[in-house]
Structures are given as structure tokens and as C-alpha cells.
Design a protein that fits this description.
The chain is an all-alpha fold and 670 residues long. The chain has 3 domains: 11-87 and 606-669; 139-317, no CATH class; 318-507, no CATH class. The protein is built from 22 helices and 2 strands. The protein has helices at residues 11-21, 26-116, 150-165, 172-180, 190-199, 203-219, 226-243, 246-258, 264-274, 284-296, 299-308, 319-332, 350-366, 368-389, 400-419, 423-440, 447-459, 465-478, 484-503, 507-516, 518-544, 548-669, and strands at residues 338-341, 345-348. A two-stranded antiparallel sheet has the order 1-2.
Amino acid sequence: MVAIGNPGLDRSGSLKQNRLLKTVSKKELEKALGKWFTNARDREGNRALGAQWNHDRSAVQPEVNVSVENQLLALKEVNTRQNLEIRGLKCKISSMEKSFRLMEEKLYKVENELNKDPKPTAKRTGSDMSPHRKAQKPRLDAASADPVNTTQSLLSSALETLQKSCSDVLPTDRIHALLTGTSELPVLRDEEKYVISEFCVNESSAETFLSVILEKIKVERGLMGHDLLQSLCRVYVGVCQQRGDSHKAHALAYRLLKEDFLEVPKVIMVMVTAWPSFLSYESTLCRAIHIVSNLKAKGKIFHLLTKYLHWDEEPPGNIHDAITSTLKSFLEDSSLRFLENSWYGYDLCPATWNYIFSLDLLCAQLGWTWTITNIIRKDLWLVLNTWLMQARTEQTPFRDVCIAAVFRLLGRLGQLGLKENMLTSLENLAKSINQFGMQNFSKGMPWEVQLSVIYAIHDLAPSNPEAALKTLESWRKNSTRFLQIIVDFHGRLKLYGGQFQSGLKLSNTFLQLFLFCPPVLKEREQEREAHSVLKSQYESITHNNQHPGDLECLLCDLEGLLDEAGKKHEQVMESNVQLQKEIYKLVSDMDLLQSSAQQKEEELLQTNRKCSMMMAEEKYELLMSQVDTLQDSVQHLENKLREKSRKREEKTKEMGQEQEGHSFLQSTKR
């Protein structure tokens, strides 16, 4: 074992060391010195790093902790304030919804009172003349006077039961419980189950009941409370589930979305509570319902639909891609066929109507201008031109059933142009279809396709009724087949064409009035009928000219009744207009509050993201400062190492000189 001395010894120690160095080679000496310096450097570096780390940690850590705590407290305060604001907004929205429901109930009561008021009639004492009565269509929601008509009484009883038992299926607290998983989907009420069981006994009664529900939803849209709408939709879907008829359930959802009913995403969710799997079918219409519901839903209803329709696992997709793929599948589907129908002649199969409803619903979300530019002109008209080029006996590339469906689709898409009052472009489309029919009816066009062209011409007739009437008359003259519905079309178009020129300027105003005030228009018609009855009685009495005293009394009574009816009519009109204004204002305020609440939620999410980013940046800066400190420490140690190495070389050089001197002295002594 070789002992290596410390280079820093005094002179006496160095002499002793010199004697020991005689037995050590230069290579071993360098190796031993290197090992010693390495150990010394490691010990010194560890001490320096430990001291530096403790110093940095004691200096930086309190500042970082204080900064992070302050930021977290500030963010917590902001979140608390925003949560309070969101709760306040939700309370306001709830109160607005209650007010809106009260307004709807009030309007509904007004309509019922008007329907119950007896019409003023007059009858001469002792006269055998009964007042003229106009035959009226029996109401579906009123009890039938004929006890034999059990179906009518059953319908009235069912509607009355639903009216009395209806309530909001998804109130705010129930929605929150469903989202948090603390509640299950609400099931059908006992009253709803009873009504469903009553009408599922046979096929005809179920069909009648479903038709009555659709008619009631259509006619009483502006007056029906949202609770009753929910109950009707649940019962409708429940009947469809018992019959296994998903097509009708999808058609109802299509109608609600297409006509943009109030809170339609919530109604779709209510239908899901009655039949949870009715939107899980692999059909184009089902996919379109998913896409449009996804576009319309907002807030908690959106999250609720996402959870129960599994949008997080399988997103509905893009609307433009859906239109393209649906149109392609529609034109390539070989299973589509015609169905014979005693009324329509030939109808399309349910699968074909699914394609038509899907494209109609999706295009309605993009507007008439986009639809006519990108679908009608670029795709559908190209299909029709290609079909004209192929021989009549061929079914490639396009089959006759697809062409018939294209015309039915054009008729439905045209309703979108009517709704947006785009009469010029719609008139051009109707003119093109009229020319198409006039030129090809006599050239071997299949009968099924001819019928579809006539239906499309009828659907687009409001844009140009005279041209539609001319085309229909020409077709009837050359056609050897008879259909009663075509006769009805002809009479309707003839009547419409005669009134078109005088009523074109007022059509838009009348359409809006008809959409928003149907009960008032109905009441006005009833008042006109009563006025006609009274007037006919007055003229009859005047013509007979008997009993002048009775005539004067009757005349005074009639004038009083007419004045009272006129005042009542004016009051009803004013009240209805005021109610419509209040409802519109409430809906606008509710939409504004909902958008504000949505914005607050988005701001809260943005704040949380900023908090996470700030904390990550703080950690990153702390690590970078530690890296810089370590790099400085390493640089400092490297400098010290170089200094030690330089001193070692100097000592080694001195030791070599001393050794040479020692050797010289020994040689001199000898």
C-alpha cells in the first residue's frame, strides 16, 4: 500500500515525503493524485450544491407558495361570484318560464270561453220559422252529442284526461338530478298508461287517436301549454312503441324540429323518457334528428341529450356531410319501391319517405338560398336530366322510384322557400317543373312518376297558381286514368288561382296572422256566421212586414246584439295582440337570459383553464430557475477544479525540482 502525503505540509514533512516518493512511480503518483482530487471535488461539490439548494428553497418556496395561494384565492372568489350570478340567472329563467306558462294558460282559457259563448239568435214569438244554421265540423276535443259514437267519446275522454293530468316532465331540479346520476328517467304516468292501453286494443282506433293528436298539436300550437304538448308527445310515442312503429315516432320528431316548436330539444328528451330507444335505430331520418337536435339544444338539455343519446360516444356528425351521404344513399338504394294506394294512386314506401324527411329536415336548417344553390340546382336537377337521357325501360343509373321521390322532395323543399317568402326563385323552380311535366307527360313517362310530378306542381302552386292550373288541366285531358285526389287538386287550384291576383300583396301578412292568431280568426269566422244568420232573419221579417211593433223591438234587440258582438270581437282582438306581444317579449328575455347563463359557464371554464395554465407556468419557471442555479454551481465547481489542477501541476513541478536537487546532493556527497 502506498501512502500519499498532503502537498500542503511544512518543510520537515516534505523531506520525509521525498524519501517516500522514491518508491512511487510517476504513473502511480498521477493516478493517486487524480483519485484524491476527484474525491475532494465531489465532497466540495456536494456541500456547495446542498447549501445552494437549501438557500434557493428557503428563498423561493415561500414566495411561490404565497403567489399560488393568492391566485387560488382570487380564482375561488371569482368562481364563487360567477356561481352566484349563474344561480341568479337560472332563478330568473325559471320565473320567466313560469310566467310564460301562465300566459299560455290564460290565452287557452280565453279561447275556451269564446268557444263556450252561445251565438246570438233571434226567433219571432209564435213563428214556426227556425233560424238558419250552418253545418259545422264536429270538434275532436269536445264530447259527441251522439251516444252511439263511442270512438268520439273515447277520444274526448282521453284528451280531457291528459289535459287534467299533464305537468312538466323535466323541471329544473329533475334535469339536475338526471345529470348528476341521482335520479332515473321519469316513466309514463298512470293516466298516460291508461290512455295508451285504451287505444292499443285495435289498429283502427290507434290510427285514429294518433291522427287526432297530430291534428291537435297542429291546430292548437299557439295556445297549447308546454305541459300538455309533452303529455301528448309521450302518449303518441307510447302508442307507437306498443305497435312497434318507429317510423311514426320519428315522423313526429321530424315535424316538431321542422316547424321549430318552442323548446323542441326538451320535447325530444321528453319523448326519450317515454321510449328510451326510439332514436337508436340505424336510419337516415334518425341520424338527421340527432344532428338537428344537437344543433338546437343548449345548456343542460344539451348535456342531458348527450348523456341519454350517447353523443359523447358517437357524435351526430356534420350536417353538410350528412346531406351528401343521405342523398347518395337515397339514389343508390335498391330496396325502394312504390306502394299502391286507393287514394293517392301510388305512394312511396316508408324507407323512401325517411330519405325525403331527412333531406328536408337537414336543408331546413341551412335555409332556402343554400338549398336551391347547392342541392336543387347542382344535384337534383342533374339527376332529372340524366334520367331523361336514359331509355324508359332502363333503371340505371336512376330508378323510376328515385325520380318520383326527387319530385316529392322538391315539393317539400319548396315549402321552405314559401316560408322565407323567396317567391322569385320559387316561381322559377315551379316553372321548370311545369315545363318538365308538359314536355314529358306524353313521351312515355311512367304513371307513378307522373303522379309525383303532379304532387310537386300542387305543392309549389302558391308561387304561380295559374301555370299550375294550366299544367294540371292539360294533363287531365290527356290522361286516361281517374283519381279523386286529382279532381280535388284541380278545384283547389282553380279557386286559388282566381283569388291569387287580388291577394298576392297581402299573402305574407295573412300568413303571419294565420300562424300567430288561429283562434282569433276562427272566432271572427263564427262572428261572421252569426251576423249572417241575424241578417237573414232581419231581411225575412222585413220582407213579411208583419207585426210592426214586434219588428221594431226585434230590430232594437238585433242592433244591440250586433253592437255587443262587435265590441266583444274588438276586445278579443286587442287582448290577443297584447298577449302575443307579452309572450314574444317573455320568450326574447328568456333567450337572452339563457345565452347569458351559457356565456357565464363558458367564462368559468375559461377561468379554470387559465388557472391551470398559470400554475403550470409557475412550476416551469421554478424548475428553470433551479436548472440555472445548478448550471451556475457546476460552472463554479469546474472553475475550482481547473484551479486545483493548476495548483497540482505547480506542486508536481516543485516536487520534481526538489527530487532533482535531492538527487544532486546525494551524488555530491558520494
